Amino acid sequence: MESSLTDEMTQLARQAKQASKALARLTTAEKNVCLEAMAQSIRQNSDKIKEANAIDLQEAEISGLSNALLDRLRLDDQRIESMAAGLEAIISLQDPVGRVLDERIRPN
To answer: What distances in angstroms separate CA 11 from CA 4, 19, 92, one per listed residue?
Structure first.
């Protein structure tokens, strides 16, 4: 089973690397459309997210996670809305891709 998990994680990493190359070519406006779509998807699927989260919480409790960690894992309407709002907040930020954010000459 562990080999299967390793294979799955390796495949996910490869897909993420490939996706990063495609994302790097998107314009700021295109990225913002994607961010807005993700925020809306989170809101539209909040019931499914909470159902999956309930399963995760049950398994975590069985595994013996502390109450503090269980609380961090728990998703409610407010936390889900916060995730969507966080994505929308990124839209208002200046796109850092292709810009030099800081430059320093080190003494060595």
So the answer is: 10, 12, 33
